[in-house]
Amino acid sequence: MRVYLPTTLPLLRGWLLAVTTPTGLTGFAVTPGLREWYAEGDAEELEWAASVLAGRASLRLLASDPAAPRRRAVLAVEVPEGDVAPLDDLERGAVRVARPVPLADWAAGLVDEEAARPVIVAAADSIDAADLGDDDAEFLVSEAEDAELLWWATQELAGLTGGLSAAEDDAERSDQPSHEQPNHDQPSHDDQHPEASP
């Protein structure tokens, strides 16, 4: 099952260093509640909607960490359906992931391009008010949601976050190439129309 985990670049760097996500994270996926709300959407559109919700949750994380770079970050992962609990009563499309997700099960990172920073700054400053129903704040958040998250292959995430995964760090220290080989089947940030986009 594809799950979109909201994060920030510093948090994502920490996950890379640990070569896994923490356990018990809240993410977003195609849940019964999301299907009911977006009944006319096909499978790709539902995946896109889940990724947008995760991007909004990333804004909340940015609002709580003023030191984090002003770019939304979402990690797309594959998790057995039995390890995912829907939380539609908490927020439409929300899920709880019952276990850590190792690097091998990461599909891609979704991160704003640097040019989107001014819009993301405004949205992160407004997300709390938007969640409380402020129309002007919601407009600023909607502008951020109109900015497309770019897809980055997992082997690109270390460079993006400014850190190395533990495996890459070990390889660099021993002057040996990393055992991890690029996966050309993973989506790239150069692809403006990934599978999960409408």
Radius of gyration: 17 Å
Q: What is the 3D shape?
A: globular
Strands of the widest sheet, in order across it, are 1-3-6-7
Order of helices and strands: EHEHHEEEEHHEHH
Q: Can you give the mean pLDDT? A: 86
Strand-pairing-aware structural class:
alpha+beta
Distance between the amino and carboxyl termini:
19 Å
- What count of structural domains? 1
Give the number of helices: 7
Q: Estimate the strand proportion.
A: 15-25%
Percent of residues in helical segments? Answer: 25-40%
Give the uncertain stretches in residue-range form: 164-187, 192-198
* Major sheet attributes: 4 strands, antiparallel
Number of strands: 7
Structure description:
The protein has 198 residues and is of the alpha+beta class. It has one domain. 39% of the residues lie in helices and 16% in strands. The protein contains seven helices and seven strands, in the order βαβααββββααβαα. The strands form two sheets. A four-stranded antiparallel beta sheet has the order 1-3-6-7. Strands 2-5-4 form a three-stranded antiparallel beta sheet. The chain starts with a strand and ends in a 25-residue tail after the last helix. The C terminus is likely disordered.
